[in-house]
Amino acid sequence: MLTRRAALMGAAGIAALPILAKATNAEEIMDTSMAAPVDLSSLKRIKRKLVRPPMVHEHEQVAPAEPRVVEFEMQIVEKEMEVDNGAYLQAMTFNGSVPGPLMVVHEGDYVELTLFNSPDNLMQHNIDFHAATGALGGGSLTLVNPGEKTTLRFKATRPGTFVYHCAPGGPMIPWHVVSGMAGAIMVLPRDGLHDHEGKPVRYDRVYYIGENDFYIPKTEDGDYMRFEDVAESYPDTLEVMNGLIPSHVVFNGKVGALTGDNALTAYQGEKVLFVHSQANRDTRPHLIGGHGDLVWERGKFNNPPERDLETWFIAGGSAGAALYEFLQPGVYAYVNHNLIEAVNLGATAHVVVQGDWNNDLMEQVQAPTEYNAAYEGKTALP
């Protein structure tokens, strides 16, 4: 039966109706039934439970000798999310969070994901892993209607950080991505990370920061529009999307998601690995008061890391990683260093570091005090 929502989507000019009816999209479903089977029965299987970003599920930094089949389960959830005060997004999500959870495996492991499309959803969905080989990253093998599930397995053949996102085909792809359907996977080398000299590197904590650009429409009066469901939001959202000017640029789904009570934490002397993804636009992370000791800008661990960076670049559709040892206590701001996007649109996180201040690294020689402007500071004036 053609519902009101389906009629609305059709009226918006969508070529392939993405609701309930089976569509041969995802740039055409592949038939791999004739391929020779692969016997992985000798490999150990482990199950990993995904956790909500910025946290990352339990994992080893150095892998055991033999590859494993790493099993994950992920639920697709369509829901309304408050991005900022009075600004609501009809979001499409992996596991109910924006970004989707970070998955961690090792080079040579097999990733086996069971993907559930909730029967309460309206849309078809799938998953495209930039870490995978063939079939549009798995997108053409995982297209599921509401109430369906599918299981995909792929071999993690190269180490690094990689984006995954929904890519159901045609105009659905950008809409689903900027509505929240993106995450990342980290494929560690089997012997762990290494620095620029090939020496082993370990991290004490890892945080996953997913950056999103949102396009929430406004009324003629300048108020943010709110919609009954994701389908109803499409026509007005598309108009804003095509203008290429986001209403919000945020970390982990909303303004303030990683500040205040939700700020990241660390201790002085700890090495923290920041994994940062942006599935749609370029970005430039910067840690105010700190640096990137070792930075894999393009996220690929076979390449030597850059050193001592002040700001690093994450290309749209990719994920990168930066390691920093915190040397001073205090509050650090982790921002997109397009400062308009950081301050005005929301792309800011805080890291609260506990420890003892080191005056050798920085010291306030004199606290602010008044001075006689007629006699002092003349050399500072034009």
How would you characterize this protein structure?
This protein is mostly beta strands and 382 residues long. It has two domains: 173 residues, Cupredoxins -  blue copper proteins (Immunoglobulin-like, Sandwich); 145 residues, Immunoglobulin-like, CATH 2.60.40. The chain has a six-stranded mixed β-sheet with strand order 13-12-15-19-17-18. The N terminus is likely disordered. Its EC number is 1.7.2.1. InterPro entries: Cu-oxidase-like_N (IPR011707), Cu-oxidase_2nd (IPR001117), Cu-oxidase_fam (IPR045087), Cupredoxin (IPR008972), NO2-reductase_Cu (IPR001287). Homotrimer. Its cofactor is FAD; Cu(+); Cu(2+). Keywords: Copper, FAD, Flavoprotein, Metal-binding, Nitrate assimilation, Oxidoreductase, Periplasm, Repeat, Signal.
Strand-helix topology:
Elements: H1 4-11, E1 44-47, E2 68-84, E3 87-94, E4 102-106, E5 110-117, E6 128-129, E7 149-155, E8 160-165, H2 172-178, E9 182-188, E10 193-194, E11 200-201, E12 205-214, H3 230-242, E13 248-251, E14 264-267, E15 271-278, E16 285-288, E17 292-296, E18 306-309, E19 318-325, E20 330-336, H4 339-344, E21 348-354
Parallel strand pairs: 1-2, 2-5, 4-9, 12-15, 14-21
Antiparallel strand pairs: 2-3, 5-7, 6-8, 8-9, 10-11, 12-13, 15-19, 16-20, 17-18, 17-19, 20-21
